Amino acid sequence: MNKQPETAIIRRITPSLDNARYAIKRAIGGEIVVEADIFKEGHDEVTAVLKWRPAGAAAWRETPMKPLTNDRWTGSLRVTAPGAWEFTIEAWGDVFFSWQHELEKKFAAGLRDLQSEILEGAGFVEAAAARAGKPDAAALKKFAAGLRKAAAEEAHATAHDPVLCALMTVYADRSLATSAEPHPVWVDRERATFAAWYEFFPRSAEGKPDSGSKFRDCLGRIDDAKAMGFDVIYFPPIHPIGTTNRKGRNNSLRCEPGEPGVPYAIGNNKQGVNGGGHKDVAPELGTLEDFDWLVGEVRARGLEIALDFAINCSPDHPYVKAHPEWFFKRPDGTIKYAENPPKKYEDVYPLNFHNDDWRGLWDELRDVILFWCGHGVRIFRVDNPHTKPVSFWEWVIAEVTAKFPDTVFLSEAFTRPKMMQELAKAGFNQSYTYFTWRNSKAELAEYLTELTQSDLKEFFRANFFTNTPDILPEFLQKGGRPAFLIRAVLATMACPVYGIYSGFELCENSPIPGREEYADSEKYQFKGRDWNAPGNIKEFLTRLNTIRRQNRALQEYSNLRIQTAENDNLLCFSKATASLDNLILVIVTVDPWQPQTAFVHVPLAEFGIGENDAYVAEDLLTGERFTWRGNRNFVALNPHTRPAHVFRIRRWLDREDGQDIFA
Amino acid sequence: MNKQPETAIIRRITPSLDNARYAIKRAIGGEIVVEADIFKEGHDEVTAVLKWRPAGAAAWRETPMKPLTNDRWTGSLRVTAPGAWEFTIEAWGDVFFSWQHELEKKFAAGLRDLQSEILEGAGFVEAAAARAGKPDAAALKKFAAGLRKAAAEEAHATAHDPVLCALMTVYADRSLATSAEPHPVWVDRERATFAAWYEFFPRSAEGKPDSGSKFRDCLGRIDDAKAMGFDVIYFPPIHPIGTTNRKGRNNSLRCEPGEPGVPYAIGNNKQGVNGGGHKDVAPELGTLEDFDWLVGEVRARGLEIALDFAINCSPDHPYVKAHPEWFFKRPDGTIKYAENPPKKYEDVYPLNFHNDDWRGLWDELRDVILFWCGHGVRIFRVDNPHTKPVSFWEWVIAEVTAKFPDTVFLSEAFTRPKMMQELAKAGFNQSYTYFTWRNSKAELAEYLTELTQSDLKEFFRANFFTNTPDILPEFLQKGGRPAFLIRAVLATMACPVYGIYSGFELCENSPIPGREEYADSEKYQFKGRDWNAPGNIKEFLTRLNTIRRQNRALQEYSNLRIQTAENDNLLCFSKATASLDNLILVIVTVDPWQPQTAFVHVPLAEFGIGENDAYVAEDLLTGERFTWRGNRNFVALNPHTRPAHVFRIRRWLDREDGQDIFA
Question: For A187-246+277-310+358-553, which CATH superfamily applies?
Fold first, then answer.
């Protein structure tokens, strides 16, 4: 122990994930309110600063922290650009301000024989001058010289001179300062924190019942999605599909000739120009050049393509021959297929992440992601990450973002809560959630509060999918078109990032009886569709997406607050910006069958509205404007015609020419 | 990254202080119930074990952990000897039990073509045999050979064979196990967790009004303390006392000739055989040999001496000349005395723990403690530790206990809560508390609960002092003898470690008017006393100490539970052993003036007593026995004659010959 050990104590820093092992997340411009226990022995004046910087930057920015009560301190910073950041706290006993404080006490007690004290203070100021740059050093030297000549009254005044105090703050003696360990922060780029995802199978782009579309046929579907307001186009796997044990319609073990196979059975070493594996595209969709062209077309429209990263290998995957050691083996030396006993998945070979050449496997999987980054893809929806080691994800996400910092990863881990959370901590920017199975008002209120108000908000960012190729929720099956309207309102209004799997806009809801799966799922077959079929809700979705874009409160994550609606079938929540310039109040029915009415409570105090002030509630879905006063107001919803109010609340600003002006 | 990164995830371990930076504390035989989030990717069966050992021991002991809900696991251990221990958690995906689980599912589904599976299992068993010692290896090989020949039914039975399962548990494949970081534990020796301290100034041993006693005169006082049941004799500083600016009676700046000075003004370079500083004794008390003799006498009586470690230097301390660089200096080069503006303490020079030769100072202070350890002292009450760096205490306690592991440190930090707690984390075995200023029932109930039921119980162990040379609480000043009885009951019954400063047993309570300080304090003067003065409460203290020794529940710390008494002036609390073989219920008045009555609620369920069972409440203060039934019972207390009931609750055991037998 030859270095001075810590002098100030800094403990219990929040926010902190597993003691700074993992990064908290923020959107660009996001605030981090940091708190910590900070104290020191003795009676010195403690100074503490909050410091932050882009990770690896040479210089820290810093801001003073302020004491709350009981040795708890707070400070706040804002992150201004995407990528890796870090913050820390530095604290020290400040000799100058301790001196000032003691001088003040002596002066107040009437002592005037303070020559020794004054010279001591001059010494502190001179030491600061030695640390300062040129003009400040001169100013400090002048203060010190003044002190050396000063009588008690003058010295007392100088000690409190605001210029001197400011300079002594800047050039404080930090030689014995204690620094906390750096706390990592990940700042997501804008589309990682505010986006509307539209998932479709490229082979289904044109809705042909007997044959597949190609990349070059996808623009119609993409333009339609763009017109509805979506901005991320997400494709299930686009790679060659295995033929060995290929599945047929409705997951049949028998595949008829001409059936297209499941895109998740990845790899066909007889196809493709690039080995036929994860770095290749299925020839039936086109070529890599076609894909590159499509990426460019999508980008030109201001949209972005998300690919599926599914670590599944069909028996025909090139890895099987090139790297048999990457797979699990039976005692007879053959490769094991996937099982969930007694079910067998003979078309999928799982990979052994801990095989002797694990490093080779991990590197290759990283290279797959980097390959698609090289083709302009920056969003990856990751299939079943919870069946691979968390440490792999932590490593691979760090490797990829080191080269392509704007890469976004969505975790498709439908599993137990702690694993879902750990994956988010390990680096996934977004996560699928239990939203799909939260239908009652009580369930929704509890879950939305947990997501946006608990510690989860620091690192677990929801992407609310209404449906997926694997999940046709019972609520949509039974509730019909009104249920689709309801779930659309919930997904779009409650969560800045959400998605639909195509067909949702058409209210497709034919299940395999008794299951939450689609009948005749396009995972296994070509699927005929009229993308403008009667009864579709495309206009409603368009309206919702427009509202999201026009109202900043809906683009923030943790500003959701459940509000009171006096009816167990009406969910009411608010979203407001910190400056209160955008106030949204959503009231949505969760009953897809009956009309419902209720008094709802407008959170006047949270919205900065006086108890007796008039305000306007403008329904952004219909354009209607109501002038209200007081917090309790009556609403009537009908799931068929008006499943929700999305009110923008406009505060009274002024009265001009006998007219009230509202924000 | 060439080593396999963590495979299992182990997070949120409890108990854990600042992420295992500091040791939790336990008494000998104490239990540590450890919990953690433990999980793993995929569907493997997870196994987790709790491991512990004396710090630095070669081998770990271990016990299986069990899952609770939601990936939370628990396990429990007991520490069996004093000193430094550590625990950790190891977890892994268990190939054999995962195999067993999958085989079971296939078997249950009616599958019998399981040859490949059975051979795989045999392989796992053979691998375990290779890890096992001789007899177990043979047994495992036999199981493996049996499996290799087995049909499905037989293999299924073998997979569940309890002997095989036990062996496969012992010889599990842990090559991919994850270990959590070690968590330190400090186990206190018995007298650190159960003791009654008696503080007296050796110079006051005989109670002479005009002259001081010597070490060789102390046995009378010590025998009296022993007779009352005390077992730690604590002396304020015994070192040479400075003469420069020596304080007189009642803290007077003028010291008359012959006045003895304040023992906390340590150091007189004109006295002593050993420099006259912290490694010396005041000649007026005797010699180092006299002190050694006294240590031996005290030890022979089964008691122990505690010394005061007060880092105070008088202007006459040898350090001032030998190490002027250790002190703070004025601009004119003279050494600064202590101040609390506008108060000046010209008889004390504070040390600068961060001076350029800080390492030399720290080493010297450590050597002071080691010096007294070398003279048989193992308990140090540390004066004002919160005015020295916490890092110094963490370092010096580790240095001392490395050589003398049975050394006990008591922190006298009357300051803000977080500093008090940090000192306890840094290594202090015991701490002074706010007990002295908690007088009402509500205050006491809240504070006792915080100390014994919150996280504090893991590291902050209270030593309840009723009074100190510096503190004569207002409650004792105003409440007179009944107040002394009340505070004695509270200190002895609520806290396994407590202390009194001598004079308490005589109900001394003359204050400096308007202050919580003793008039004519013996800190500054000789003090005449009759140690058997009328009105003393020595018999009462003796009874309380006897009760403590005879009832194990009172020797435990965190078993205190506040119970209901239907009167705001009666505090009721229970202490019970885990095995319920010692059940104590204390009811004490906090009103030193008026009699109080109430119904109190006996915690029948906590005590394992049926709602309709008869039980005996034996008052250990008086010997009275009451037979009660039901939880609500009437008590009447009188602060003058019966300030408390200390009931030992005796459960009904049996009925024999028409007589009820109680525990």
Answer: Glycosidases (3.20.20.80)
Smallest Cα distance from A40 to chain B, Å: 7
Residue among B341, B354, B422 minimizing CB distance to A176:
B354
Percent of chain B with pLDDT over 90: 95
Distance, CA of A455 to chain centre: 13
Pairing of strands A644-656, A614-619: antiparallel
Sheet holding B232-235, edge to edge: B430-431, B408-412, B379-383, B304-309, B232-235, B195-199, B497-501, B464-465
Nearest to A116 among B39, B331, B341 (CB): B331
Residue A501, CA distances (Å) to A153, A236, A488, A658 in order: 77, 10, 12, 51
pTM, whole model, 2 decimals? 0.94
Least confident residue range of B237-246, B299-308, B334-343, B508-517: B334-343
Closest CA to B487 of B474, A619, A401, A439: B474
* Backbone torsion region of residue A442, taken as left when φ is above 0, otherwise alpha when ψ lies between -120 and 50, otherwise beta: alpha
ipTM over 0.90: yes
The answer to whether B9-186 and B187-246+277-310+358-553 have equal CATH topology is: no
Q: Of B199, B280, B383, B394, which residue is the catalytic one? A: B383
A238: number of Cβ within 10 Å:
23
Contacting residues for A330 by C-beta, under 8 A, at least 6 apart: A336, B116, B119, B120
* Known active-site residue A412: yes
Dist CA B52 CA B13 (whole Å): 14
Integer Cα distance of B356 and B354 in angstroms: 6
pLDDT value at position B663? 84
CA distances from B599 to A325, B377, B381, B620 (A): 76, 48, 41, 19
3-state secondary structure of A652: strand
pLDDT digits (tens, 9 = 90+) for B320-348: 999 999 999 999 999 999 988 888 888 89
Q: Where are the domains of chain A?
A: 9-186, 187-246+277-310+358-553, 247-276+312-350, 559-662
E strands, A28-161, are 31-39, 45-54, 61-64, 66-67, 72-78, 83-94
Which residues, listed in sequence order, are joined to residue A383 by a DSSP beta bridge?
A412
CATH fold label, B559-662: Immunoglobulin-like (2.60.40)
- Residue A5 CA to residue A178 CA, distance in Å, equals 8
Establish how many alpha carbons lie within 13 A of residue B491's alpha carbon, considering only the half-sphere containing its beta carbon: 30
Q: CATH topology for B9-186? A: Immunoglobulin-like (2.60.40)
Q: Exposed/middle/buried for A247, CB within 10 Å: 0-12, 13-18, 19+?
A: buried
User: Cβ–Cβ contacts within 10 Å for residue B110, how many?
Assistant: 7
Q: Which residue of the set B217, B347, B412, B505 is catalytic?
A: B412
Closest CA of chain B from A294, distance in Å = 35
By Cβ distance, the residue of B1, B19, B389 closest to A7 is B389
Stated length of chain B: 663
Is B412 known to be catalytic? yes
